[in-house]
Amino acid sequence: MNSSSAPSRSSVDRVVAITGAGTGIGRATAHAFAAEGATVLVIGRRPGPLEETAAGHDRIVPLVADITGPGEPERIVRTAQETYGRLDVLVNNAAVVRSAALDVVTTEIIEPQIATNLVAPLLLSQAALPLLEASGGVIVNISTSIGQRGWPGGSVYAATKVAMELFTRTWAVELAPRGIRVVAVAPGAIGTPIGKHQGLTPEQLAALREWQLAHTPMRRRGTPAEVARSITYLASPDASFITGAVLPVDGGAVVA
Prior knowledge:
By secondary structure, the chain is of the alpha/beta class. The chain has helices spanning 24-35, 47-54, 72-84, 107-135, 155-175, 194-197, 202-214, 224-234, and strands spanning 15-19, 39-44, 60-64, 89-92, 138-142, 181-187, 246-249. It contains eight helices and seven strands; from the N terminus they run βαβαβαβαβαβαααβ.
């Protein structure tokens, strides 16, 4: 076994739960943790993508769940406890995007984003606290670098992600005495299916990508694997004195 494939001691035997793990950043993060030797519980609403994430990875276990459903946060945590007896890392990655400008936004657009991007990770993190305290665990919230700038048409999504950063800072202070670290990663333009999930046409996707590149100094989109490496680092003992931090992974978009 070469050094690049050897499990990291920091992750061996840890149990990690990742929401929204059927595609994109969630899938890449599951693969990164599994490669380090962690057992990874991948959570999402659709069994097919979760099975694709787990394919060929003995350490990745799918769990079909709608994190916005009544009692689902508790069921997810109970599954980790009954199956593995512990939980070391919770990655709050699941999110939905529904674009609309202020003059046309509706409750049908607003409510799913708040439920998925804000309320569900709060309730899941709350349910996980006993296990995370027992393990000296880590909560990793996924925000977005666009929350630091104006995003015409994306105000609701960006607002939920800015709130996740406030959660990160606040929970870090609240939970430090209990031995739990809380950090966040704020991706910029990343090559994921999120645009397709919004139902954008090919023309709209092309326009979005052009806009993203114009606002990214490195003039390229990042990869899910690049975000995943930041997540695994912040969740590792190597980052043991980091809490309350929000790390942009955005090719310089925040500072441009």
